[in-house]
Amino acid sequence: MAKVKPFKGIRPPREMVTEVASRPYDVLNSEEARAEAEGNPKSLYHIIKPEIDFPAGTDEHDPCVYERARQNFDAFQTNGWLVQDKKDHYYIYAQTMDGRTQYGFVVAANVDDYMSGRIKKHELTRRDKEEDRMKHVRVNNANVEPVFFAFPDNPVLEEIIKKVTATPAEYDFTAPDGFGHHFWVIDDDDTIAAITEAFAQMPSLYIADGHHRSAAAALVGHEKALANPNHRGDEEYNYFLAVAFPASHLRIIDYNRVVRDLNGLSPAEFLERLEKSFVVEDKGTEIYHPEALHTFALYLEGRWYKLIARPGTYNDDDPIGVLDVTISSDYILRDIIGITDLRSDKRIDFVGGIRGLEELKRRVDSGEMAFALALYPVSMKQLMDIADSGNIMPPKTTWFEPKLRSGLVVHSLE
Predict the structure, then answer these.
(1) Is the bond leading into 402 cis (omega within 30 degrees of zero)?
(2) CA-to-CA distance for 67 and 224, rounded, in angstroms?
(3) What pLDDT, in 10s, does the model give residues 44-103?
(4) Model pLDDT, residue 123
(5) DSSP 379
(6) Which among 84, 76, 88, 80 is positioned nearest to 22, based on CA atoms?
(7) DSSP 185-234
């Protein structure tokens, strides 16, 4: 059963939260972080992207950069920009985008649950990215940024969300990207106990976003357990920082593809080859959005095409074989274009749906790319079915928005 606990969060005073809070480390590059943090010594980027404190071009994986993260984390606490709560709390963190709000519980999730597979993943991780985040957790002895979990809807937890969020929020602000962020501290001992018990009834939690952070946090906790001859299992390092949302609150948006060439084919030959596996319908010059599973939008030479996958290209009884990302990877990218490894092939790039299909059009019209492919988004049910079956999704399948804001609360491993 899923094991979570409350913890003594380290977080900014209310009047400083907008100065401290930042986007996650992995959604922007060093130069973008340097620009966003300019003139703001309180920005969390000084901890999560500390290369911004060095000359431009400094290797972000240099040991001195990790050491600066630790120095900055210490300084934030000394300066009172991050302050540890006196008692263990759960927290509720809500995000508002396009008029809808999703509510999640900020918890300390259990390392053993990750190691044993009770915390389920749907993506492969890369060891180099894991190692980078492990160094960051080790040097700070803290989970500075949360991971993003989902859980099956739970009526007890929904009632707690309603009750807690009827009270004034501790933090309530709109970030520069226009998304709202709202944060409550749960102080009532009975409510805290009810949250722990409700999670304990769940057979699994699901990683929605942040697979590398999850792996890094769990592996460092596991390292600490192995290194401690007096390990008991209740030490703080046995837990890591997560925000867990009811599945029905979350919306996965599309994750689209742009490809540099047609593998030697003319546009007419490419369309002809597509006819074998898809019904191809010319939609003209107006942007076309796929409206259902197994339909795709293709942008080629200034025109949009609707592609409908023919029967036999997908298997509704196979959690991976039913995915549109599988259909497009197999019958377009592999069979026609010759792209077999989505992770490493330089002929393909991926565009999160938050940027809109206009971005796909722009990259093709500029001549940078030969065509674009827009996919219908995966559902939370599909994600959870895949995780339950022990399968792994193809790369670049899911895009969650809004991203969790970093810096609202930090979890110390001490």
Answers:
(1) yes
(2) 19
(3) 999 999 999 999 999 999 999 999 999 999 999 999 999 999 999 999 999 999 999 999
(4) 86
(5) P
(6) 76
(7) EE--HHHHHHHHHHHHT-S-EEEEE-HHHHHHHHHHHHHHHHH-TT--S-
